[in-house]
Amino acid sequence: MNVAVPRLEAKHLLRRYGGRVVVNDVSLHVNPGQVTCLLGPSGCGKSTTLRMIAGVEMQDSGEIYVDGSLICDTVFRVPPERRNIGLMFQDFALFPHLKVGENVAFGLSGDKAVMARRVSELLERVGLADYGNAYPHELSGGEQQRVALARALAPRPSIMLMDEPFSGLDNRLRDGIRDETLEILREQDTAVLLVTHEPEEAMRMADNIALMRDGRIVQEGAPYNIYNAPADRDAVAFFSDINVIRGKVEGSLVQTPFGQFLAPGVHEGNEVEIVIRPQHVKIDFDRSGRGPDPTIEYGTPARGVVKRARFMGSESLVEFRMDHDGSIFRVTVPNVFLPAEGKVMWLMIRRNKCFLFPIKRTNAA
Ligand SMILES: Nc1ncnc2c1ncn2[C@@H]1O[C@H](COP(=O)(O)OP(=O)(O)OP(=O)(O)O)[C@@H](O)[C@H]1O
Ligand SMILES: [Mg+2]
């Protein structure tokens, strides 16, 4: 059987700066026509990873392959300009002395008429058909960014590396450009490695997300899996606000003010954290000091008092102070409901939406 070779593959990349490891054993792959997203907080090593793949920075160890062929390890190195990799970086720069059309044509060669057609086709697709003869300084920041995008796409790179390429655009423009860019890249069967620190952007664009933290990839998978089967508490927290309940496993169960939770596979006596997103907490009214009856789906209700309620547009965010320990619980509810501060209510947790993680001990003691 012919096993498909990834268009781009990085194996065990490692990079140190002044003795500190900032990219630590990163392996990833991207298939043709697919988008892999490197997602993680500021400083976790995303741009450094991308720069090594682009060839503008050398890894301390690890290898990079394109279509199964080695293009870079610590001794052998194909120079950046011969990698057929398109780049769209955070700090993109257009050539100020070249017109917009000339900027887009920069990486092209060959027949003049063919080049001109390609340039006008791309300018049209990024919504700048009439700007070919303008100079970069005559364009807004967002327009310049779209020119940079057209320039990167022009030579039909087989791999496109994008580092927060849409960060300078306002929301509505951004959605349009983002979708359009993806469409062009998919049409050309380009393999895209996209860096972002925004979970929404990653979910919207990626076929595959590699979640990065402190230089390492902590989880990799389709957006649906990363969101619904997160590897740890921080992976949940990266995508949304979280609520956390702590407890100890006794007889395979954890007793909490919200009822008991199953703790499969966790050792007896271990502490666990039960993590729940604000949209999976249900709230109900107080009936003369009593809450709703327990259910299998939602367990037992626990009582809290509204500390703050904020209208957020499509939904409201309500913060409760819980009676049992004074902790804060965040709940999102449909926007029609905005309870008054001080109101007593009952909270219930959607069992099949919460995540249970053993608490990691930071040292072996
Ligand atoms: N040339 C350099 N010299 C020294 N340290 C560097 C250098 N480049 C990056 N670093 C450090 O390496 C770490 C990773 O940086 P990197 O730019 O890869 O992060 P990032 O994930 O892209 O962050 P952001 O989302 O803020 O762009 C950071 O702590 C940064 O300060
Ligand atoms: Mg960066």
UniProtKB/TrEMBL annotation:
**Has UniProt tagged this entry with the keyword Iron?**
yes
Q: Gene3D superfamilies, from UniProt?
A: P-loop containing nucleotide triphosphate hydrolases
* Cellular component, GO annotation: ATP-binding cassette (ABC) transporter complex
The family database entries (PROSITE patterns) matched by this protein are listed as:
ABC_TRANSPORTER_1, ABC_TRANSPORTER_2
The protein's GO terms of the molecular function aspect are: ABC-type ferric iron transporter activity; ATP binding; ATP hydrolysis activity
Domain of life per record: Bacteria
State the name under which the record lists this protein.
Answer: ABC transporter ATPase
Is Ion transport there in the keyword field? yes
List, for all copies, the residue spans of the domain called ABC transporter. Answer: 8-239
**Known PANTHER family for this protein?**
SPERMIDINE/PUTRESCINE IMPORT ATP-BINDING PROTEIN POTA (PTHR42781), SPERMIDINE_PUTRESCINE IMPORT ATP-BINDING PROTEIN POTA (PTHR42781:SF4)
Question: What keyword terms does UniProt attach to this protein?
Answer: ATP-binding, Cell membrane, Ion transport, Iron, Iron transport, Membrane, Nucleotide-binding, Transport
Q: Which InterPro entries match?
A: AAA+_ATPase, ABC_SmlMolc_Importer, ABC_transporter-like_ATP-bd, ABC_transporter-like_CS, ABC_transpr_FbpC, Mo/tungstate-bd_C_term_dom, P-loop_NTPase, Transp-assoc_OB_typ2
GO biological process terms held by the UniProt record: quaternary ammonium group transport
